[in-house]
Amino acid sequence: MPRARKTTLRAPARRVTLLIATRKGLWTLVSDTARRGWKLAGPTFLGHIVHQVVADPRGGKTMLAAARTGHLGPTVFRSTDRGKTWKEATKPPAFREGSGRVVDHTFWLSPAHPSEPHAWYAGTSPQGLFRSDDDGATWRGVDGFNEHRDRKAWCGGDQDGTPDGPKLHSILVDPRDPKHLYIAMSSGGVFESVDGGGDWNPLNHGVRADFLPQPTPEFGHDPHCVRLAAGQPDRLYQQNHCGLYRLDRPQTTWQDIGVGMPKATGAIGFPIVVHPRDPDTVWVFPMDGSDVWPRVSPGGRPAVYRSRDAGKTWKRQDQGLPKSQAWWTVKRQAMTSDTRDPAGLYFGTTSGEVWGSRDEGRTWRCLARHLPHIFAIETS
Amino acid sequence: MSGQISHEVAVRVRVQIPSPLRSYTEGAATVAVAVPLLAPESPPTLQSVLAALDGAFPGIRFRMIDEQGAVRPHIKLFVGGVLARNLRTKVQAGTDVMIVAALSGG
Asked: pLDDT per residue over A3-14, tens digit each?
């Protein structure tokens, strides 16, 4: 597949909205057109555990919010007026009655292909894949995954997942083909379907799983976040429990791109963010994965690392970030970019701070603090 | 759905709603639902009370009962003041159902 050329078109100046999903509700930050001034609004769904809120990028007005509360079961809320009002899905994601499986929470929301403007996918904890064809009003299980004969082997048990439950995430749709899908599971690994979710195959060759007896298994890995490169959908980037990887299809072996990271920092983290136009540029937010896995900024000195050569080399970007005693954790959905030029970058911490850069990570400033534990940030 | 049931084949049951579920009942702390009877001499079960409740307030049942029919971890159901162990519990005429959202962490 020929590599897409970098576009030189400058995105028009417009406001950026950050949808900030937290353990206690949804907040928004709206910028001015220069992205210098930001206005915080909220909360919506106060007291709800909101795992992610996603605005439909396909031109629609639909927004979906994955939520539950401490007491109540999981659901999906829908807005068709850009978040002014919300209604609950009439049939939220739920496993087949009799399957013995129970959705604890919906974790990940992805719009389907632009040719299917009302379709969405959802990933759940424990690992399940669901689809809606009516803008999130009703959801059905994707049987090709949920009922797959190997699903149990791929996913393992609850003890194989993250502390708040094993998850299906990073649902990626090939922009050239609505039936070509990727998913990732913590744990389980990365899987691919070429028939719209009817069947799935592991896609983990080259990725380490050094917490397992056999460190290079076919599945059982722990991908933290997987993204498709913009303009080059044959390229995937992966932030894994065991490092950083890139895959250029049709190859099936992931390349280790964590080797260029400083040894003292390491290549472990939760999120990975791709540039909105340049398939060679990618950002990560490293965390401490030593001994008992503190999962905080290494040494208490937070930094973003950027590669402009598809992961061969990395540059530290920490101007404006605290120089010491900042023990942040940034979760896998809590770092994102906008589509402006230069691209804006944003991340939220589990300590409730939102940081932004309007110059592709060169300089940073705090946009909000004192929010609850941040799970996800999406732009719209 | 409840409006289509005649008085001869249904009983009205009062259900006390905890605050986390009152967004479904327009803020009401107590609601009454008409529960169909399978046989005139047989009282309804908690299962059928919750089905009638969901008919009147769509979506409320799934927030407290999972897709396998189990009561969710932080929900308790009382019938006539007694903790119900399962959804087959009979709801005698004149007894209230109380839904309790138990402690669920910080």
From this structure: 444 555 565 678
The closest of A336, A284, A238, A281 to A6, measured between CA atoms, is A281
Q: How far, in Å, CA of A181 to CA of A317, rounded?
A: 33
Residue A73, token pair as written in the block: 């079961």
Contacts of B65 (CB under 8 A, 6+ apart): A73, B50, B71, B72, B75, B87
The amino acid at B17 = I
Q: Residue written as tokens 């220069």?
A: A34
Using a CB–CB cut-off of 8 Å, the residues of A that contact B are 69-73, 75, 88-90, 92, 94-103
Nearest-5° Cα angle at A136, A133 to A142: 55
Residue A88: its chain B contacts at CB < 8 A?
Answer: 59
Contact B62 A90 (CB under 8 A): no
Measured distance CA(A364)–CA(A43) in Å, rounded:
25
Ordered by where they begin, the domains of chain B are 2-101 (3.10.20.30)
Best of B68, B71, B74 to substitute, by most chain A Cβ atoms within 10 angstroms, is B68
Distance from CA of A100 to the nearest CA of B (A): 6
User: Could you report the per-residue pLDDT of A215-234, keeping only the tens digit for each?
Assistant: 889 999 999 999 999 999 99
